[in-house]
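Hi all, long-time lurker, first post. I run a small reading group and we've been trying to get comfortable going from sequence to structure in the token notation. Rather than ask abstract questions, I figured I'd post a concrete chain and ask someone more experienced to write out its structure so we can walk through it together at our next meeting. Sequence below, copied exactly:
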Amino acid sequence: MPRQKSNNNNGKKKADRASAQESALPLDMQEAPRAAQALRLRRMGYTYAEIAERTGYASESGARKAIKNANARIIRDEARALVGYQLDQIDLALSVVMEAIAKRDKGSLWAVDRLVPLLKRQADLMGLDVKPESAGTGLALVSVPIAADVLEAI
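-- Answer (accepted) --
Happy to help. Here is the structure in token form:
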């Protein structure tokens, strides 16, 4: 059976998506260093017009757009690094808390109290909890693993 022609609208949507993806990528290998140079010049106090002239952007708005995009990439990269650092710190704290819980002495109850906020922050950073606005009207249940011997101590 011959294939029917797909709706022309679908082809247009695919082309639009491909075009949007291409525009997010640098057009040539010189774009990243040029954007970095534009960012450096802006931080030194140059105007967008001066930056466009020095770096070869066609216009002031081209320089402005390149600087805006470069700043956004830097902020995203730094945010990812910060989240990684915080998760490492939480892992260290969790290991100390779990050791205190395992001792099953007076400090164990304190450690259990510290466990919940640490796990909550870890879940927040990792995006594990369901956000209230996306959960709809239902309730979201989040399980927190606690060792059986800790539950006996409580």
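A couple of things your group might point at:
The two ends are 70 Å apart (CA to CA).
Residues 1-10, 17-27 have pLDDT under 50 and may be disordered.
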